[in-house]
Task: inverse folding
């Protein structure tokens, strides 16, 4: 009778494959990649990028063998990667990946868990509970804080601002989750003029308008000028930052959060890479008052060196976050165990808590603090070397960011271009205070003092080549 039902030859053959061979090959290619990471160009060569065209093909009708798939990926894909798991990638604000985090991710990928509900994956649920507790512990955040595990800070900010919007409107007797914004009372959104683009994106998605904001002027480090704040009241959503994406600067949380708390405003902090500074007592000058906010967004995949797709939304008012993310009724029913989807916009999700847990476990509390301290020290070292050679460092190096300017905009752009094709290290460009800058972001545990020296020397060599 079974013969009457369809069975795919393709799937039959895939079912008979030996996973042993597949994973061994993946392991072999991965180790090869990591063993060469220090000697290869940090950015793919033009030829490697050209070779990525190999992937441009129509999907064949016939299946490909698993071994061949991995070989293609290794040959063409690997060469087209940016070597950010080495020590000399300083572009954007990225991060490295700790060995334990990588190993845990491999194992977790084999499990392929769905972190939506406890009943779908008890282990994912348990590790979310633990990661929530450890994160609060490491960052010294209030015990009542609830945390959702999302893909990154963009989503986390979206969640935090939605929670803030609903909270303020609820206090005005209006339920935005149920009624939408059509007849909602107006609330004011206050952002610094140096806010990250993802803040405006989130505001536009949640109906508050990316441009209908009060922009507060900032000082030369990108910090909101406190004496230029508009009137703050219970209808105000304030967005601050812990770590300006260019300068790394931190807003004056103590002044602004105290005022906001007193007036019952909501403060969200974009702490994509800077929130982890709370882990270090040496960073207290920058983080003072940061715990007084209502919600915070951060990434595990930047300065903490967890793998990608690791964002966290932290909210002091746990129920407000859950209510905003969980549209099933007027009150929440928490089950006996943690159901991760209550805290996030998504339902089915990767169990990212697996590698986040491994990251924390690998570093320990002291390790997180020392990671923060090292990134800071190495950024200062980088800045010291280049400024001793006569280049301008345009920011106060308060954390891991260094903005370098060489003579004028044209020369700085030339410097960036030559750095990017050198293969020695990689850094991006940005504009700061109307000047072109090369932005160095020290984000990886892998970066050694030697890597800093090699990279800084390359800058000096190129500037001599360009001449004055
Ligand atoms: C990277 C970054 C973001 C966006 O985070 P994603 O994880 O890329 O979504 C937001 N704000 C700041 C300051 C950032 O550095």
Result:
């Amino acid at each position: 009778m079974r013969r009457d039902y369809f069975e795919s030859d393709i799937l039959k053959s895939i079912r008979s494959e030996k996973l042993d061979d597949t994973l061994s090959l993946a392991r072999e290619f991965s180790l090869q990649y990591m063993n060469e990471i220090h000697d290869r160009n940090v950015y793919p060569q033009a030829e490697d990028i050209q070779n990525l065209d190999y992937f441009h093909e129509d999907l064949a009708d016939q299946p490909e063998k698993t071994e061949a798939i991995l070989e293609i990926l290794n040959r063409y894909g690997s060469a087209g990667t940016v070597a950010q798991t080495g020590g000399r990638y300083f572009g954007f604000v990225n991060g490295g990946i700790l060995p334990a985090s990588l190993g845990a991710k491999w194992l977790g990928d084999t499990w392929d868990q769905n972190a939506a509900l406890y009943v779908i994956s008890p282990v994912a649920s348990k590790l979310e509970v633990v990661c929530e507790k450890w994160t609060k512990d490491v960052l010294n955040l209030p015990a009542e804080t609830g945390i959702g595990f999302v893909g990154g800070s963009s989503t986390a900010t979206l969640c935090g601002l939605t929670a803030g919007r609903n909270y303020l409107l609820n206090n005005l007797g209006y339920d935005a989750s149920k009624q939408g914004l059509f007849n909602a009372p107006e609330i004011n959104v206050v952002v610094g003029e140096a806010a990250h683009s993802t803040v405006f994106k989130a505001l536009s998605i949640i109906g508050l308008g990316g441009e209908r904001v009060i922009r507060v002027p900032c000082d030369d480090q990108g910090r909101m000028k406190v004496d230029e704040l508009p009137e703050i009241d219970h209808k105000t959503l304030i967005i601050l930052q812990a770590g300006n994406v260019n300068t790394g600067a931190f807003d004056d949380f103590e002044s602004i959060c105290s005022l906001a708390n007193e007036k019952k405003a909501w403060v969200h902090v974009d702490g994509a890479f800077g929130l982890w500074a709370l882990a270090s007592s040496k960073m207290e000058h920058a983080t003072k008052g940061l715990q007084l906010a209502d919600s915070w967004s951060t990434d595990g995949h930047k300065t903490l060196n967890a793998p990608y797709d690791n964002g966290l939304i932290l909210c002091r008012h746990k129920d407000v976050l859950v209510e905003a993310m969980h549209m099933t009724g007027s009150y929440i029913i928490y089950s006996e165990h943690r159901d991760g989807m209550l805290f996030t916009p998504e339902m089915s999700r990767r169990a990212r808590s697996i590698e986040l847990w491994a990251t924390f476990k690998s570093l320990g509390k002291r390790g997180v603090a020392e990671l923060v301290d090292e990134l800071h020290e190495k950024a200062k070292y980088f800045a010291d070397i280049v400024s001793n050679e006569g280049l301008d460092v345009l920011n106060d190096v308060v954390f891991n960011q260094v903005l370098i300017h060489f003579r004028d905009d044209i020369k700085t752009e030339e410097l960036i271009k030559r750095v990017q094709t050198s293969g020695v290290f990689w850094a991006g460009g940005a504009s700061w205070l109307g000047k072109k800058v090369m932005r160095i972001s020290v984000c990886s545990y892998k970066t050694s003092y030697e890597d800093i020296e090699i990279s800084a020397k390359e800058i000096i060599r190129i500037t001599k080549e360009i001449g004055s």
